[in-house]
Design a protein that fits this description.
Mean pLDDT: 89
Structural class: alpha+beta
Order of helices and strands: EHEEEHEEHH
Strand order of the largest sheet: 1-6-5
Distance between the termini: 38 Å
Low-confidence stretches: none
Largest sheet: 3 strands, antiparallel
Number of strands: 6
Shape: elongated
Length: 141
């Protein structure tokens, strides 16, 4: 169905990432280039209307820090970046489990879906209006 658009991700809708305390501590210390010590908690402080976290408190044994940008949160908690910042944090006996939803920034257009629609012959305006109903496309220059 997706042709060659993205063959690395099996599930775009619901996903789970699990880290031991050592893994998440090493990852955050490396990504944020600071020494937080062992990470003891990840606390979502604020979410946008779509449910995506846009303020996350990282609590370590040596330092506490608040990240206030969606993409920076995604980058800090993954080798590359989490699929989305729409996730819940579950503390486990060995670390943390992140239960996420979706893939992207949450602005309403699915890049894979748009690519598939294009492959199926839909025109750009049909694709845009599919995702942004009642929008108007017009030349402004």
């Amino acid at each position: 169905m997706l042709n060659d658009y993205d063959q690395e991700t099996n599930d775009f809708y619901r996903w789970t990432v699990e880290y031991t305390v050592d893994e998440i501590s090493d990852l955050i210390n490396e990504k944020l280039k600071d020494d937080f010590g062992r990470i003891t908690d990840l606390i979502p402080l604020e979410r946008g209307k779509s449910g995506r976290i846009w303020k996350l408190k990282i609590v370590g044994t040596k330092k506490t820090f608040i990240i206030g940008k969606e993409l920076e949160i995604r980058r800090a908690l993954s080798e590359s970046h989490l699929l989305s910042s729409a996730f819940d944090v579950e503390k486990t006996s060995t670390g943390f489990r992140l239960h996420g939803k979706g893939w992207g920034h949450g602005v309403g257009l699915c890049q894979i879906g748009a690519a598939v629609m294009g492959q199926q012959g839909f025109k750009y305006d049909e694709i845009l209006l599919h995702y942004y109903r009642n929008a108007e496309i017009k030349r402004i220059y």
